[in-house]
Design brief:
alpha+beta; 6-stranded mixed beta sheet; 4 helices; 35% strand; globular; PAS domain-containing protein
Length: 138
């Protein structure tokens, strides 16, 4: 039996979801030792209760998340920057009634990773209470 790459599987499921429900994506670039948010879809901003000025041009340190998790988010972005598809669950502190399933993948240009693309699916937190998912409260 072949091993399943769970991050790729979740990414494909999110792609299918986006075809029906619209996309919720963000883009980040690495500059020096920080990841800078360059673009965020309006639908995602609305769900996060944020506006573009709250996030565009900001680093994960500046982003309105629980500061204890900035290192985790940076580690996730570094894995994706090194070529891995990564997925995780998070509940943003700007809307604790939701959980986002997030995939982050490298976007290559001329063989080099120049940015990361994140895609999200919204889950009502009531539907996952009592499960054993590794949810990060950002």
């Amino acid at each position: 039996m072949r091993e399943i790459d769970i991050a790729s599987l979740v990414s494909k499921l999110i792609d299918d979801y986006e075809k029906v429900n619209g996309r919720m994506q963000f883009e980040v670039e690495k500059m020096d030792d920080s990841f800078i948010y360059r673009n965020v879809d309006q639908k995602l901003l609305d769900i996060l209760n944020l506006n573009r000025n709250d996030i565009i041009g900001k680093t994960s340190i500046d982003f309105p998340i629980n500061q204890n998790n900035t290192e985790k988010l940076t580690a996730i972005f570094n894995k994706a920057l090194n070529g891995q598809n990564v997925f995780f669950f998070l509940t943003p502190n700007t809307n604790e009634n939701i959980c986002l399933v997030v995939t982050v993948r490298p976007a290559k240009k001329e063989g080099n990773t120049d940015k990361l693309i994140g895609s999200c699916v919204l889950i009502d937190i009531k539907h996952i209470v009592g499960t054993c998912l590794p949810i990060y409260y950002f």
